């Protein structure tokens, strides 16, 4: 009789619930709503919500048996394909909402094949990131500078990578990111202010400002290229670093790093919105 109970009720019930969870989740996560199974007259939730009943010399709780079956299935399949962690997490949530099943967490690394760079690691080393990456404002992507790596491949950071990190670590990392970027910007802006208020730089800029104001109409609102070249040559006279960079080059890099920090915050905001939008599908 126990064998008949398993073959006639428990095994078909487990299979039916697994198929229902899998197809409904794929319809939302993978965008395949056309995959549906024919609805049967019985509702599996009626079985999973039954109270424990006595079957000869033992107590049987159908919900616990289904939970054990799904625990094993989800863990084994997720261990084989770790990039499907998102799908199985949604299936666990759907099982809890629809059938009242409490499926244990797999405790596998929460990542996917296209996880990309980790926002938490970048945030802790934000000063290194803004110096070693360039920001493409149109494509909303950071690309690693070729000069800072010997690898044939360059790392990139896209909005989807930020969304994956937020989904892995939680939305709390966004507040941490704001604090770290704010501190980084304070240091960069302090250096920027010191550069502009340097006597050698300030005096040269004031000369160009006076010339531009006096000849604005003659030059059609543009600074002549000759004066720009003269300014660049004057910057070289102030000294050159070991790698051949002038003060103007360092200033340009500083402005680029400030822009990278602001662009990074913009990307984190967009990644947070994308993460919320992906989660809202299941509400």
Task: Give a description of the structure.
The chain is mainly α and 283 residues long. It has helices spanning 2-29, 44-48, 62-80, 85-99, 119-124, 126-132, 159-169, 172-196, 199-214, 225-237, 247-280, and strands at 53-55, 58-60, 133-136, 141-144, 156-158. The chain has a 3-stranded antiparallel sheet. Strand 1 (53-55) and strand 2 form a beta hairpin. The chain is rod-shaped. It starts with a helix and ends with a helix. The relative contact order is 0.10. The model has no long low-confidence stretch (mean pLDDT 82).
Cα distance, first to last residue?
Answer: 42 Å
- Unreliable residue stretches: none
Number of helices: 11
Shape: rod-shaped
Biggest pleated-sheet summary? 3 strands, antiparallel
Instruction: Find the count of extended strands (DSSP E, 2+ residues).
Output: 5
Average pLDDT, to the nearest integer?
Answer: 82
Provide tags for this entry.
5 strands; two-stranded antiparallel sheet; rod-shaped; 3-stranded antiparallel β-sheet; 283 residues; mainly alpha; single chain; 63% helix
Topology readout:
Elements: H1 2-29, H2 44-48, E1 53-55, E2 58-60, H3 62-80, H4 85-99, H5 119-124, H6 126-132, E3 133-136, E4 141-144, E5 156-158, H7 159-169, H8 172-196, H9 199-214, H10 225-237, H11 247-280
Antiparallel strand pairs: 1-2, 3-4, 4-5
Helix pairs in contact: 1-3, 1-4, 6-11, 7-11, 8-11
């Amino acid at each position: 009789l126990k064998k008949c109970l398993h073959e006639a009720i428990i095994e078909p019930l487990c299979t039916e619930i697994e198929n229902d969870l899998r197809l409904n989740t794929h319809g939302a996560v993978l965008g395949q709503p056309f995959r549906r199974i024919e609805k049967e007259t019985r509702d599996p939730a009626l079985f999973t919500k039954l109270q424990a009943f006595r079957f000869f010399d033992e107590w049987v709780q159908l919900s616990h048996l289904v939970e054990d079956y799904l625990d094993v299935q989800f863990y084994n399949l997720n261990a084989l394909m770790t990039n499907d962690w998102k799908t199985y997490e949604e299936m666990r949530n759907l099982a809890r909402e629809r059938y009242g099943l409490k499926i244990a967490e797999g405790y596998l690394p929460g990542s996917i094949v296209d996880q990309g760079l980790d926002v938490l690691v970048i945030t802790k080393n934000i000063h290194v990131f803004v110096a070693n990456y360039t920001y493409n404002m149109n494509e909303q992507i950071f690309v690693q500078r070729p000069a800072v790596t010997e690898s044939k491949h360059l790392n990139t950071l896209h909005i989807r990578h930020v969304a994956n990190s937020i989904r892995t670590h939680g939305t709390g990392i966004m507040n941490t990111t704001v604090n770290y970027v704010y501190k980084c910007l304070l240091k960069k802006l302090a250096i920027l202010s010191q550069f502009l208020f340097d006597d050698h730089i300030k005096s040269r800029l004031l000369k160009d400002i006076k010339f531009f104001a006096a000849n604005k109409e003659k030059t059609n609102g543009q600074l002549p290229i000759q004066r720009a070249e003269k300014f660049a040559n004057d910057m070289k006279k102030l000294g050159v670093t070991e790698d051949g960079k002038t003060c103007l080059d360092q200033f340009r890099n500083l402005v680029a790093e400030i822009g990278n920090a602001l662009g990074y915050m913009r990307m984190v905001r967009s990644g947070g919105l994308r993460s919320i939008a992906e989660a809202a599908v299941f509400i």
